[in-house]
Amino acid sequence: MGAMNDALAMVLAGGRVDAMGVLTARRSMAAVPFGGFYRVIDFVLTNLSVSQIEPVGILSQYRPYSLMDHVGIGRPWDYNGRSRELMFLPPFEATGERDWYRGTADAVYQNLHVLERYKRRDVVVLSGDHVYRMDYRPVLDQHRRTGADVTMVFRRMDVGRPARFGVGVLDGDGRVTDYAEKPAQPQSDLASMTIYVFRAEVLAEAVRRNAVTGRTFHLYDEVIPELVRDGRVFGYVFEGGWEYLRPLSAWHDAHMRLIGDGIGVPMNRVLTNLEGAGIGDAPPAFIAASAEVRNAWLGPGCRVRGRVINSVLFPGVTVEAGAVVEDSVLLNDCVVGRGARVVRSVLDKACLLGEASRLDGAGALVSLGKGVQVARGAILPAGAEIGPGGVVGDVPAFDGEVAP
User: Fold this and answer.
1) 247 in the same domain as 126
2) Which residues pair with 59 in a beta bridge?
3) Cα-Cα-Cα-Cα dihedral of 245, 26, 78, 277, to 10°?
4) Contact between residue 132 and residue 45 where contact means Cβ atoms under 8 Å apart
5) With 90 as the cut, is the pLDDT of residue 63 above it?
6) H or E stretch covering 41
7) What pLDDT is recorded for position 395?
8) Cβ distance 329 to 259 under 8 Å?
9) Domain span at residue 359?
10) CATH number at residue 348
């Protein structure tokens, strides 16, 4: 199909998701680790790279350091050089006023200078918060073939009642005849994947209008419904795997399925930054003769002398002799001391669990009130016990909604 030199991408990657608990206390959802090795943003950037869409702008404002440190100038995704460009687009001060992005539409509005600079026919606006593998070129082909103002990507699934997602209705020609954001009574099983292809001039006009008339300043509940009503909006139905990953229980559940039958998302050839966290320099995982490891993913640099069952260990995790890790996800460089027990728990990076300590998230991790969460760098003293729903470590207070 050739390079898509007449499109650019804007990735919405800046929001905090309170339902993710400790994992988004110090990082945006797009920067959350996933799959024993990756960050959530890796999947969207891999998709864009494979689809040959450039340039790419990343709209980020909530605690962006982790995301910016990981992505850098985009080298792992081949977005460095004279012809392939990746840029971060944070809020900025101009004309004596300083505004945070008030919503996803406002974020695009504040960066209309990017559209004007590159003068591409189409703009792909998509969330950086989801895990899936997709070639966007067929969507662009359909978008241009139908002469659409906007093409939205949907996936058939159980949307819930009330719906957890935006829900669209398509006619026989694939045109979107109705769209509602998280309706109480959904009219179809077509969930929006938060992937939109806009004609550039349509997007620019819509966000300029929204900047004056908007209340929420979001694409999905103001701009898109208006264009469905007054414009030419078509749907593209995606049939591959897709992980929404929220709340925290869904993130944990996705990891449990990864080590089971899988999540339907190919995990091979996902591009990531191996240098930023030193992963590329880590030795292979070490499993001692005294260890027992069953149904687990172990990242490089892990050292296991105890038992690891039905769990995912990110790079550099240490499980000492006599320790047990079961039905849990441990992020980079955690240490589980001798005789400690970790059950149905989520540990952020660099946690230290003292000897004979216990994290017991008894019962299924079906809500934030069940399994145990441990914040980054937390230290659990020897012999300490934390029961279901416990949170270990300091989690900064959230002082208001941040978008996108």
Assistant:
1) yes
2) 12
3) -110
4) no
5) no
6) helix 41-50
7) 60
8) no
9) 279-392
10) 2.160.10.10
